[in-house]
Amino acid sequence: MTLPTKNIHPLKQEIIYPDSDGKPMADNTLQALWIVLLYSNLRALFSGKDVFVAADLLWYPVKGDPKTRVAPDVLVSFDRPEGYRGSYKQWEENDQPLTVVFEVISPSYSGMEMLKKRDFYEQYGVSEFIILDPQKNEFYAYVAKEGKLEKSQMLDGIWTSPKLGISIQLIEGELKAFYPDGSAFKLVEDLKEEKEALQVENKALQAEKEAALKAEKTALQEVELLKKRLRELEEKSE
Predict the structure, then answer these.
(1) Of 29, 66, 96, 160, which residue has the fewest beta carbons closer than 10 angstroms?
(2) Phi/psi at 150 (nearest 5 deg)?
């Protein structure tokens, strides 16, 4: 018996967007240090705001095309909430492209590879593309103008990101990163200590507030008690 095939349709194959490209985040400790430095300080800078910061996360700018992808060392996307993501699928992010991307290069990187990445970021709408070479203490920044990523120059050894407000500076031949207020980026250990100190300070302030409220409540109770006694004395005097 032959079954009819007229209304039988092949199952639609689900498109898979892997969360990893199988490549290591860093080739050496200096590269890893800078990736962590940028990631942790940018997260601290934009904490509590609608700014998403991630490191070594795959970005898929085109729905239905899992082969068109890239994993910047550090990325920042404005107007997107903080939170977990296995990858950054642009069509699930209100079609918001990455705003700023950082690449921290190692000796294994080639100039051609960076040019390809620049072209990719330009094509898909990145506003700023920053390249750091901590081993050579070299730095390159590209800023989008009319849809093109154009090379930006340091002025007196300082470059300030138009989008992030942070600055990269060349001080005595060494690259440094700074917050908009001029304070230097901190190592993860320093950020942790600051956070713990802030938590202790907040707990102390909360304890002081609770003690003040308790004292105020006690004082009000004493006033009510005095009023009650005064009424009782007035009633007896009558």
Answers:
(1) 29
(2) -105, 145
What are the angstrom distances between the C-alpha of 202 and each of 40, 172, 209? 22, 39, 10
Would strands 100-104 and 128-133 be described as parallel, antiparallel, or unpaired?
A: parallel
28: confidence class by pLDDT, cuts 50, 70, 90? confident
Start-to-end CA distance of the chain, whole Å, equals: 112
* Phi and psi torsions of 177, nearest 5°: -120, 145
Sign of the CA dihedral with 110 first, then 116, 119, and 121 last: negative
Query: Do residues 128 and 142 touch, judged by C-beta distance below 8 A?
Result: yes
CA 37 – CA 185 distance, rounded (Å): 7
How far is CA 36 from its chain centroid? 11
The reported pLDDT for the residue numbered 7 is 52
For 166-169, which contacts have Cβ atoms below 8 Å and span 24 or more sequence positions? 166/42, 166/45, 168/130, 168/132, 168/139, 168/141
Decide: pTM greater than 0.90: no
The type of residue at 190 is D
